Every structure is written in C-alpha cells, then in structure tokens.
Amino acid sequence: MKEESIRRTGAIGVHSVHRFVFSVPDLAQARHFYEAFGLAPRQVGERLDLYTDGHPHCWASVHAGGASKRLEFVSFGIHAEDEEAFRDRIDRHGLGCAPHPLSDGKGLWLRNPDGTPLQLIVAPKVSPGAKSRPASRLRVAVGQGAAPARSQVRQVRPRALSHVLFFSPDVPRMTRFCSEILGLRLSDRSQDIIAFLHGAHGSDHHLVAFAKSHAPGLHHSSWDVGSIDDVGSGAEQMRAAGYDRGWGLGRHVLGSNYFHYVRDPWGSFAEFSFDIDYIAHDVEWPASDHPPEDSLYVWGPPVPEDFIINHEQPLPAATTKAQRAKEAT
C-alpha cells in the first residue's frame, strides 16, 4: 500500500514516533542491555542508535549523559503536505522552541506542556499500516513435540517499535495537547491516571501513552515481537543476561497485547509486546474511560512495587511513604 493512501481524510496529525532520544550515565551499560534485549545498537560518536533486526529505521538514540537517565526529546514523523499546517499551529499557540542541542536541528520544534522538546519532521511513515502479523510457525508432525530444546532457542529479536509511554504530572492536559496540536486521537483512558493515544493515519492501539507521576520522564519503550512464545523467551534471555527484574508474562486490557517488561539499569523498562490491537486510519475507535481495575491487565503476576515509580526525577528524600502511595493511586 502506498504511503499517501494511509491517511485519514482531512486530518492533520503526526503519523509516527520517528525517534525518542534520552541520555544515560554509561553508554557501555546501555549497549549491553539493548543487545541482550535483541536490538541492534550502532555506536556513532558518543551515542548509540537503536535499530531492530532487518529494519532500516533508527528508532531511538541513547547519548552519554550525566548522573541519571534523562529523556531529552521526542521526534514525530509528519507528512510533507501537513508541514505548513503544523507550523501555523505552533505559531498560533506560541509553542515554538529552539532545536535540541543533541538533534540534527531539522524540522519544526515545540515544547509540550511538561516542557519536553518535540521535533516534527517530514519523514516516511514507520508506524504500521496494518495489524502486526504473527511469525510463521513450522508444522509439527504427529508424534513429535512442538517445543524446541532449550539449547536451540534463538535470541528473540524485536521487529519494530510499537509505542512509548511517558510520565506526566497532568495526564488530561497532555491528552488535550496531543489531540489539539499533534493530531493524535484518544484510544482509551482511566480517570486522570493513564491515557493511550493512536495516530489518525493508522497505528497500533497506542503510539504514545502517558501515566501520572510527579514529574515528566520515560517509563517504557515497547517493541513488537512475533509470538507469545517470543515474549516468554525474551524474558528468559534477559534473565540469563542478568536482567531479572520486571513484570510479566501477562496480557493487557487496553491494547490487548501480551507483555513482559524488563527493568533497565536506570529504573525504566523495555517491553516485549505481541498482538496489540490495531486502529486503521478509517476506523472510529470507541474510546472509553475505564475504572482502574479494568485498565491495566487481564492476567499476569502482581504488579511490582517499583513499576510506576519515576526514577528519572525521584521524589525528594523527605517524601513520606504516604505521599508515594498517593502518587501510585
């Protein structure tokens, strides 16, 4: 299908997360984590560019930074014919800002309400044009076992970036911004706790999402794999590499995907994801406000205590347990 046909008629909106960019204290540690995860990092000077196996697109860049992880900026892809409309929106709302010093300086620049710089750049659509297909499976002859020997399991290698979830101190405000300025559309939410947004021109159930916290930051990146077995095998390969903290195996309610999250060295997560819902460019998704108990997962192990903690911008040491508990509700 040609890119120009994958459009919602009359809609001006970003079509992809072109790249997310963050910095960490130790680039060698980042390389070890993402290689173990199954990505293909490429070092360029003082940064790592993250690729998936067999795909030409760079999904993320990791820079050598300060004492803690820091979300630097997010780049969104737009259609060339929408550039002037976006420029006008940015100017009318007074949102423009200088290009981030770690960027290539191209495109349009603005800040979201949480202060994070955003780049809008004319680029090919890399969000999916259809629901992700399961990986092909070999037929098993009658009388033979279907599972491979443990010693013969190949490394799980994600196929593409599915979505990114960010912390925000004001989820409804971020939802309005994404709708009115970026042209994203609400998929589902739960009160003011979490919101999931998809691309108007077709994307997975969520291209980006926002979870309530005391400060902005990067919570997790989610990576598409070809089977539920890949989700489980991915978790196992990360345990073998020394990354045994996380959450899964489970199945989400909103988005419906099977998941396993792996805690990275900086307190955020990378997710193996399979079979997420897809929202086509010509579909009106019935967005709803779900009660918290119906918004996170259908089945799986209990949620780890640190899963919703923003380690990127920690609460002051004097913060009480009661205050932390309030943030988590």
UniProtKB/TrEMBL annotation:
Protein name per its UniProtKB record: VOC family protein
Record-annotated VOC domain positions: 16-123, 160-275
Gene3D superfamilies (alphabetical): 2,3-Dihydroxybiphenyl 1,2-Dioxygenase, domain 1
Superkingdom classification of source: Bacteria
Region forming the signal peptide: none
InterPro entries, alphabetized: Glyas_Bleomycin-R_OHBP_Dase (IPR029068), Glyas_Fos-R_dOase_dom (IPR004360), VOC_core (IPR037523)
Coiled coil regions, renumbered to chain: none
